[in-house]
Amino acid sequence: MKLMRLTGLMRKEAYEIVRDPSSIAIAFVMPLVLLLIFGYGVSLDARRITVAEVVAHPTQVTASFLAEMERSSWFRPTLYLDEAAAQQAVMRGDADAILWLRSDFTRLSYSQGSAPIHLTVNGVDANQARLIENYVTGTWLLWQQQEATRKGARLVTPVIADTRVWFNPALRSRDYLIPGLIALIMTLIGALLTALVVAREWERGTMEGIMVTPVSRTEILLGKLIPYFVMGMGGMAMSTAMAVHLFDVPLRGSLAVLLAAGALFLLTALGMGLVISVLARSQFVAAMVAIITTFLPAFILSGFLFDIRSMPSIIQVLTHIVAARYFVAILQSSFLAGDIWPVILPNVLGLTVLCIFFLSIALLRFRKRLD
Length: 371
Fold this sequence. Notes:
By secondary structure, the protein is mainly alpha-helical. The protein folds into 2 domains: 3-42 and 172-365, no CATH class; 49-150, abc type-2 transporter like fold, CATH 3.40.1710.10. Helices cover 68% and strands 6% of the residues. Helix 1 (3-19) packs across helix 9 (217-246), helix 2 runs parallel beside helix 9 (217-246) and helix 3 (60-71) crosses helix 6.
């Protein structure tokens, strides 16, 4: 390998990047758009839940409980005359749940100190249904405590849960989603940059010109890899800055550790793109293969949205060949918990193995031949 030839190839690639804005769009515009869409448009939190309230016998006690529901930031209650009208609202999609206070609510509240409430939840979205149930239960217990305090009595419960939330005390799904989204973005950047640009050279016929030069295949691959690695790290830096400063996701770990892990993951993603480029010489085919073999597994099997431990055993085994799985764990640890080395080191080892594997496959499969 000669440094002069490698420098010439890198300079050629830099000119290609300047002349073709699609590479710049992949490295910087696509992360910006995806972060804005997911950061502002996607949320796993259930807020402003529409609750249809039905009161069989309105009293001061029922009004007090409904006022507590109104004050909560979780609910957007609407009063209905009877349960049939509330059921119709749920069927039309105008309400997510029905809260029914029966006619004996006030009497039981005074005689027994507590009164049952009837809650009907739309269970089409099972996750939201569980959240609604928990939110209503929490509001009901809070109201009971306030009523007991107002009466000068002590609310007696058999068990009191003293809950402490680690790593994400605000319970914001955005703090959980944004770090995982960075892994998806880096997967797309790495795979698409190298897969498309090499395929484009095959389509334009410029790869044949490189083949007849005395450059080695290692120099060709490095000449492709290094410029797009620099671009990818720029996209990584931009995504991290947006996560911290725009979306207020805390970065509790070391920035140096995060960037080092990001560099290792980017090399792995670029290696996957090089492997795709060796097999596919059409930009359309390369783009489809990159999305199917890199983005979709990263989206589904990385733990970004779906908990890996909840998957079937065979699927859990398959996740070990998905590079994004390791980077998502590192990102979530760095952003939310800090530099937890028992988490970071095994995942760095997994990324290192995959990085060496994909770069080796790309080097072995790449030939200076036209067939």
